[in-house]
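queue> pop job 88
queue> type: inverse folding (structure -> sequence)
queue> payload:
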């Protein structure tokens, strides 16, 4: 029941006069009911009076309760948790959270709540501070236990661990479930927010629904959130998709599924792009990056012509010994196009020795280069090799010096077999996947990039994976969204590809723009998560290109941010609104008429005016509690949301025991990134590997690998 009626200003933040009236009504009701023989001897009249008092009492009581609810919601929000199976479902929609659609009314209420005279209704006021001081001094008192409780009669409950300003959401105590149209997902989504404010929990909520809908789900997690991994596996098991789950993690190569970032390409030139994109390209480094691209491209094209499997390992081997690859290709080319070419070989010995010393090349390479130059023979791949091999080996390697450390990291130790899988090795029980396979079978993939251990390798692999997805999107865009999927599945229920990229700024490259542009026809639905948009600009190195990427992300969720520039991405899209305000005006003046008996006049009035304000300010977004956000949905409609926190330990029974060491190791590493106080001193990844791989078997899992769902 609305206590405000149709008044021009709905002011809930004032003394509760309605309850005073209701209390007076209760007193009158008691008096009339108990003393009716003295007040109203006529029974019908007395009964009528009792009825009228009852109606007024109840009516004012409900109005007072509405006032109380609005005032209490400014101070305190109840905990909001939800089990996975309780997530609301609706056809054609996905659950976004609990909240309300933000309108001019809520802007007005927030403005009123922040007036100095209304401080007593907000979370931090004098009574709140007094209660907290009393609890510190008397922790065992029954009063302290009550003031620290969630009881509805407690007017000074403690602030929840979400912190921030609860009044931002408290301006509307009448929450409802908010849904996002699935048809809008193809327009892609960006989630912005500073560290530890709810971005990953938002990812959990969306990923859970994507898994239960049966979509293809690919999740990139650069830092390694153990709770996210655990939730994904648990939801796959709940949805009956345990066999669809794939686990790829650079920090755990012994049990990770295998993937080659350069094995599937639309054009061979993509291989050089995927590797070169991981190299620095700012300033003077741009030229060296181009040299590296040309070097890798020549290796890739020659290897493809020779039928050599393209992996990081083979590219590193050939880049370190390009002469050997050049000899093999020149022999292949000349045998194919110029039979009898060996009869024309020959270089004067002194000239041969001088060239060998000057260039550092092998004798065969010098002879082949001399023959090709004398004959004027040409071949697209051969010309690239000639251009590189004609230069001094030492000088050219100096130009591509940044390439070798990167390739070395990607091919060292157990990382080599993880990123350069041997397809013919039957002793390795780990599964191998590519994106075509994942999309055909309807897989759910967790990609842990272990950025905390080696950011360079993490960035290189993540960027290459995105480039591979962009290439796959190009094929699906060209041949239709059913590309790579069984025809029976295509005609009945075409799978969408839901891509979730946490720490998005660490993964993107130049290929991300075409990925978003092609995504509609490819069936991709991309959701990216990052802290500030400046991070994206810094990564791309081009403001215009970063804005181009932002222009392809149509749905926006914004949690608490610390950067006003990031906050303005949302606030600048909102129209200003007019809110009514009351101005107190009083005055007095002399009376000029000598015949008038009054000596002066006075006046006092409440003047109602309207002023234009921003619907939201950047400062509102810097004060959001954890787990709360604003969202622009369905064509720019503004919603204020609270996200449900998952019920802890609900997934424990679904998590396989043989993966506990992985979970513990990821959790320790992730927590250490944010605070060293969260883990024991000396704990690191080496510790868990020693404890885990001790020569024993764990539920069928050995050092060789794991078969999920078997």
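queue> result:
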């Amino acid at each position: 029941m609305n206590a405000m009626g149709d008044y021009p200003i709905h002011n809930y933040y004032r003394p509760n006069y309605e309850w005073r009236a209701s209390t007076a009504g209760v007193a009158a009701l008691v008096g009339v009911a108990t003393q009716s023989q003295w007040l109203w001897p006529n029974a019908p009249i007395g009964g009528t009076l009792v009825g009228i008092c009852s109606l007024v009492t109840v009516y004012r009581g409900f109005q007072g309760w509405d006032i109380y609810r609005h005032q209490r919601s400014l101070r305190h929000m109840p905990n909001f948790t939800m089990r996975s199976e309780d997530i609301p479902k609706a056809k054609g929609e996905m659950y976004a959270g609990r909240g309300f659609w933000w309108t001019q009314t809520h802007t007005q209420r927030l403005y009123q709540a922040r007036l100095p005279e209304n401080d007593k209704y907000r979370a931090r006021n004098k009574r709140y501070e007094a209660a907290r001081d009393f609890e510190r001094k008397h922790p065992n008192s029954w009063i302290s236990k009550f003031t620290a409780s969630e009881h509805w009669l407690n007017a000074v409950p403690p602030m929840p661990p979400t912190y921030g300003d609860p009044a931002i959401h408290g301006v509307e105590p009448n929450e409802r479930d908010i849904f996002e149209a699935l048809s809008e997902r193809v327009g892609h989504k960006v989630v912005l927010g500073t560290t530890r404010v709810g971005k990953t929990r938002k990812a959990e909520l969306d990923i859970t629904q994507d898994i239960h809908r049966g979509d293809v789900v690919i999740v990139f997690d650069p830092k390694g959130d153990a709770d996210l991994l655990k939730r994904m596996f648990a939801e796959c098991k709940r949805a009956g998709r345990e066999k669809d789950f794939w686990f790829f993690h650079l920090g755990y190569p012994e049990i990770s599924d295998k993937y080659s970032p350069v094995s599937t390409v639309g054009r061979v030139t993509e291989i050089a792009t995927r590797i070169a994109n991981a190299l620095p390209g700012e300033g003077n480094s741009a030229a060296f990056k181009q040299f590296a691209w040309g070097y890798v491209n020549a290796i890739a094209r020659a290897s493809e012509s020779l039928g050599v499997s393209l992996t990081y390992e083979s590219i590193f081997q050939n880049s370190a010994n390009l002469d050997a690859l050049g000899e093999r290709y020149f022999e292949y080319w000349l045998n194919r196009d110029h039979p009898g070419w060996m009869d024309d070989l020959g270089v004067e010995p002194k000239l041969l020795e001088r060239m060998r010393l000057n260039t550092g090349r092998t004798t065969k390479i010098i002879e082949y280069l001399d023959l090709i130059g004398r004959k004027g023979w040409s071949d697209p791949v051969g010309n690239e090799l000639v251009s590189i091999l004609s230069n001094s080996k030492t000088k050219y390697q100096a130009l591509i010096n940044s390439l070798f450390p990167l390739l070395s990291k990607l091919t060292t130790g157990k990382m080599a077999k993880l990123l350069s899988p041997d397809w013919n090795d039957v002793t390795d029980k780990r599964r191998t996947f590519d994106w075509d396979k994942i999309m055909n079978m309807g897989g759910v993939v967790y990609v842990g990039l272990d950025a905390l251990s080696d950011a360079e390798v993490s960035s290189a692999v993540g960027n290459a994976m995105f480039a591979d997805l962009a290439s796959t999107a190009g094929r699906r865009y060209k041949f239709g969204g059913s590309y790579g999927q069984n025809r029976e599945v295509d005609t009945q229920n075409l799978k969408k590809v839901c891509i979730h990229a946490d720490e998005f700024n660490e993964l993107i490259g130049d290929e991300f723009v075409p990925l978003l542009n092609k995504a509609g026809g490819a069936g991709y639905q991309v959701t990216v998560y990052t802290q500030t948009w400046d991070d994206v600009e810094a990564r791309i190195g081009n403001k215009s290109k970063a804005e181009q990427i932002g222009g392809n992300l149509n749905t926006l969720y914004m949690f608490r941010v610390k950067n006003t520039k990031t906050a303005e991405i949302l606030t600048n899209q909102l129209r200003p609104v007019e809110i009514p305000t009351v101005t107190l005006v009083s005055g007095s003046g002399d009376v000029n008429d000598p015949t008038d008996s009054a000596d002066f006049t006075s006046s006092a009035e409440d003047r109602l005016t309207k002023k234009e304000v921003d619907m939201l300010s950047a400062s509102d977004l810097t004060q959001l509690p954890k787990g709360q956000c604003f969202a622009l949905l369905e064509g720019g409609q503004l919603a204020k949301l609270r996200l449900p926190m998952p019920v802890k330990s609900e997934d424990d029974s679904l998590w396989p025991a043989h993966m506990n060491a992985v979970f513990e190791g990821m959790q320790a590493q992730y927590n250490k990134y944010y605070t060293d106080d969260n883990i024991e001193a000396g704990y690191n990844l080496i510790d868990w590997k020693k404890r885990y791989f001790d020569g024993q078997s764990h539920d069928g899992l050995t050092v060789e690998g794991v078969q999920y769902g078997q």
